[in-house]
Amino acid sequence: MKKISLKQKIIIILLLTSVIYTLYQKLQGIYNTSPTLQVHFIDVGQGDSTLIITPDKKTVLIDAGDEQHSSRTTGYIKSQGIDKLDLVIATHPDADHIGGMDKVIKNFDIGMFSMPLVSKDTKQYREIKKELKNKKLKNKPLYTGDGLSIGKDVKLQILSPQKNRTYSDTNEYSIVARLLYKEVSFLFMADATMENEIAIINDFDDISSDVLKLGHHGSSTSTSDYFLGKVNPSIGVISCGKNNKYGHPHKEVRNLLEKYNIMIFRTDEQGSIVLYSDGYKIYSRRGK
Length: 288
Prior knowledge:
The chain has a single domain (about 35-280), classed as Ribonuclease Z/Hydroxyacylglutathione hydrolase-like (Metallo-beta-lactamase, Chain A, 4-Layer Sandwich). It is an alpha/beta fold. The strands form two sheets. Strands 5-4-3-2-1-13-14 form a seven-stranded mixed sheet, with helices on one face. Helix content is about 30%, strand content about 25%. A hairpin with a 4-residue loop joins strand 6 and strand 7 (about 155-160). The chain contains nine helices and 14 strands.
């Protein structure tokens, strides 16, 4: 019998090690049942759209970007294998948040739809009303103190707007939501202003959140020093367009994030961003 050389033995050992490691990785994937929350910050240019997928596959969409990026929003949702959205929130009637919402309503089954009771005389707003009527969907506004259970162990806490309050700016009507999953929390500020931030601090004892989706695309009209200290996030996410004409995110806000040593994710620099959590830790990758 021909003797196996030392070099051949080493090659065989390396091949066997590789096979064993590959099998181990596959078995890990099969038997790892740790439920994972997904939060997708979709790159819709100078706009907002966030998709939440719970561990038991319940889905929430917060805003749908502008009309120009509507196909990107719907395409992204479909790429996740989703044909039904359990909850859709149109935070306020600005075009960069609701411009693509009529396409979302048209293309997906929707369990519950919510937007504030403030109208705007725009084509985008009229299209939403039209598609809601076509789908026989009723609007169920959400207010400060409301809470929703989104599948197992996932809750959505509404921090703003206050019920029966009249605001001077449509941004102030923004539906602000705090997502809670076990020991992890996300705060979505839409275009809420510093006035809203003060009301939220007064209305709630605890607004601390691991992830803060910054208000108004990182504008200096939102995210005060005091508010940021109360939220105390480790991660900040900014949705804005590349080289946008507003200069978002503003320097004052970037300086504040640096002051508090907050890790920053930006859709204008990184594209769509996905954060995952098992309820204890958060990790990230780029979206599709």
